[in-house]
Amino acid sequence: MLIKEIWGHIQFTYYLLISKTSFSSYLCKRNIAKHLRFVKINGMCPHILIVLSVLVTSINLCWAGTDILQKRGEIQYVLPRDAIPSIKAPEFIPADKAGLDDNEPVVGITINGESHAYSVYLLNHHEIVNDRIGNMAFAVAWCPLANLAAVYNREINGQEYTFGVSGKLLKNALVMFDYETESLWPIVYGKAIDGELTGRALKNIPGCQKVSWGAWKKLHPDTLVLSYHGSRTIGYDVYGNYHKSEETGIYPARNTDARLATKTNIIGIEVNNKQKAYPFYLFNKTAIIIDKFQGINLLVYRNNDTGIIKVYDRQIEGVVIDFRENRSDTTDSTTNTTWDLENGIGTKGSKKGKALHPVHFLTAYWFVWSDYYPGTEVFDIE
After folding, report:
1. Closest listed residue to residue 185, CA positions, set 304, 327, 72, 37
2. Are residues 149 and 195 in the same domain?
């Protein structure tokens, strides 16, 4: 009973920052030191430390000059480095032993035919997993404030890097650091903006999905599931109230854009330093959106039943494929090929067995995307 009560206090204290409730008024009512001791002893989520950051004024580095220096100047300091511990040696179990609820959200990725799933409820407490499939070393990064997942190759010029949670935010999104050089890497950019590796970019790995466990398991029955010290899940979402609320991160956005509601979920792409957003609600009318952006013929796909999202270049072997007005039909009207759009493979017709080229995308809350990319285009079905 005591454990349940204290854990309830920890959760409530954590949500104070999200709801921007007065820290001082709460401090007089609860013994924060008691909670901190409890977290340390029981190895529970370190997010309780976030309340202490309210006492520290965010540092504005205020450099002038290059774009990188301007971005560096917007970094906000929230927690000590490693206060949220990344996972450096992940273990996995088969899907049939995972014990996850079918409705529980997971981040999923498939590389070279092998699929891994990571419970979002567990990722909330670690945010970064340093993983490997075969010879591919990669980092799975999850930012609950932005509702954003990204996967990056951890190798640069043959050197493998290990990533941790810096405790810093850039425009309310996670900033990683690497242990080898302590450079800072905002996950929206995938590029170092501070430290020895400033200006270097990580190679993104396309196809990262945030979907329900039931949908991912059905699509990838042989998937492996992250297990951390025997836990596959925490069993609930500590950010649940935040996602249901109108609160937008921890710090006010510098660039606000009223074209969409702040917490609209969007698919964001960047081509030639230009950006475009596709709100999720568009896919209530169609599973397929065709578009041309910065010279690329795009196919943007979202299965509303499963939540699976894919973005492809529609040009294949010199032919740009198109689709009929009924854009839930995955047979194109150009080559009469039927496509498995969740895997990007032709299943019937003249392009059977051919693969569409994937285009990198991120999904995030609109208030984060528009803050990073003011002036971004927004697709609208005419």
Report:
1. 72
2. yes
Nearest CA-CA partner of 19 in 221, 246, 180, 232:
246
How many whole angstroms from its chain centre is CA 80?
21
**Comparing C-alpha atoms, which of 260, 81, 267 is closest to residue 174?**
81
155: β partners: 160
Which CATH number do you get for residue 349? Answer: 2.102.10
Count CB neighbours of 32 within 10 A.
Answer: 17
Same domain assignment for residues 302 and 171: no
Question: H-type helices in 298-379, by residue range?
Answer: 366-372
Sort 312 into a burial class: Cβ within 10 Å, 0-12 / 13-18 / 19+.
buried
- 144 or 20: which leads in pLDDT: 144
Do 246 and 285 fall into the same domain? no
CB atoms within 10 A of CB 81: 14
Backbone φ and ψ for 24, nearest 5 degrees, come out as: -65, -40
Radius of gyration from C-alpha coordinates of the chain = 21
pLDDT at 325: 67
The stretch 351-376 carries a mean pLDDT of 96
pLDDT tens for 97-148 read 999 999 999 999 999 999 999 999 999 999 999 999 999 999 999 999 999 9
What confidence category does residue 382 fall into, taking pLDDT thresholds of 50, 70 and 90? low
